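Morning F.,

Quick status update on the modeling queue. The single chain you submitted on Monday has been processed. Sequence for confirmation:
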Amino acid sequence: MTNPPILQPKSVEWLISDAPVPYDQAVAFMEVRASAIAEGNAAECVWLLEHPPIYTAGTSAKPQDLLTADRFPVHVSGRGGQYTYHGPGQRIAYVMLDVKRYAGRTTTDGETTGDVRQFVTLLEQWLIDTLEAFGVRGQTRADRVGVWVQRPDKGCNREDKIAAIGIRLKRWVSLHGVSLNVEPDLSHFDGIVPCGIRAHGVTSLVDLGLPVVMADADVALRVAFEARFGVTTVAASREH
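Structure tokens below.
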């Protein structure tokens, strides 16, 4: 009797761009790739990149939270959330993943659907695991999105955001993703109210006193991702 074939787990393509990628080009790539994934014609993908300095407005962005409209280009984004900043020194990880695969649930009709909250929780835990590699304790808060670190050096109740999350779904495939502050110019956040939150600030790994470079962050992100989501395959670097 012939043994049944061993089914290999699906591999997520792990893509890194070394040069900054214009925002509109990244969105165009995600749109095409997400459609191909939904149709079964492409592998899932995590794309690590940096953007030139920009502000992006999510679907919940409030006009009054854009404090300096002429400082950097402003892009209206289809992702969830409010205003955020992207720029050099910040690692963006765009996740084009089948949400049902990682955060699926069965409805009363026996159909499989996706649990968006569960998927976002997985992304949060991925970032928290990544930060642990550098001895940083990241935390989430029920009343505000993102990953936060406590800053006793700035006051007993001060917490700064070190990572942001904002996604959109297309036929249950995710677009956009997460951003981790490695060493961005934190003054660039001054032109907006990041994610609509005024009571807390932003920080980065380097701002916390850690000598982390982007390559270190990339390794930690991949190790933590594979522990939560499964195997990845490194693709050739993509230039914009």
